[in-house]
Amino acid sequence: MAVRMDQELRESQVPWSLEWLGEPGVPGQASGPEDPGGPAEPGGAGESVGFGAAARALGLKAREFELAVQLGEVRTVTTGLGRRVACEELRRVTAAEGFPEALIARLRVVGTAEGAELLGISQGRLTRLARGGFFAPVRFYVNRYRAVVWLYLASELTEFAIRQPELLSGRTPPGLSAALAAGEDWRAAKWRSRRIGQLLDQTEDPWERAAVLASVLGSVELASAVADPYERAHLRQLRPALVRMRPEAGAVRDVIDAVVTADDPREIRRYRAALASSLGDARRARPTPRPDAGAERPMEDRTRVRGRPRSLWQKLVGRR
């Protein structure tokens, strides 16, 4: 019933047109009917619209559009009004073969139960494969029991099944079984890697790129990696949010912090090495802002999540 209602809602939406997005060369025209995102930005062929108008133009819900941007399905531009979507990009997406069904299919996310049903395997097997790092979560949320619920792209699960069908049946490989018994779980690290890559793709500014890499390090690790307190303060100021948290999310904030903070020693070393390289680029581009003499030193604002020892599964598969 819910699927049918959702389909009817999509079919009832009016197809987008430049008439209500704002034709190029018509400055100030609204970017959509009752669009809260504001008017289309003037600028001829470079005209852009807000995220709300772009989502409606593509027939996507807010969360679907957010995911489309994260996955690079919809490209954004940085303007004086912030990040927006160029009208030319909307033309490109809507002109693609199979639109909108193909786009919606690529954005479909599934939980463990639905993913297991999609692949024709048990939920336990899907969880074991995810913990082993065979595919990466695309999202997560914390349920009422303060447990992390992982979500996956349906298209990636299908691709995995085609690529490695031998893992969908029979006995679990001995190495993976031993690693899982020892507590191996790659889901959070895989999600962090995906999210950091998405955020790096959104900026070319060297300090912003360094802040992205610093966002997964706890305060102790960051202080060790970046000795200058003013550079650390600047990185914290530029640090993007890896996930959106509601104001009332205080009860689960520690659970979310554990997911977004790197905890494996080798993962931490990789991010520290990447941060050191990015900081070198940033320092050559421009110095970090510094307050007047006598100002108080900036305060740290994050706590460290303890690292895990090297896992058995990583030893078995030769990961470094």
TrEMBL record:
Residues 1-46, 279-320 are annotated as: Disordered. It holds the Pfam family DUF6397. Residues 1-11, 293-304 have a biased composition (Basic and acidic residues). InterPro entries: DUF6397. This is Uncharacterized protein. It comes from Streptomyces antimycoticus.
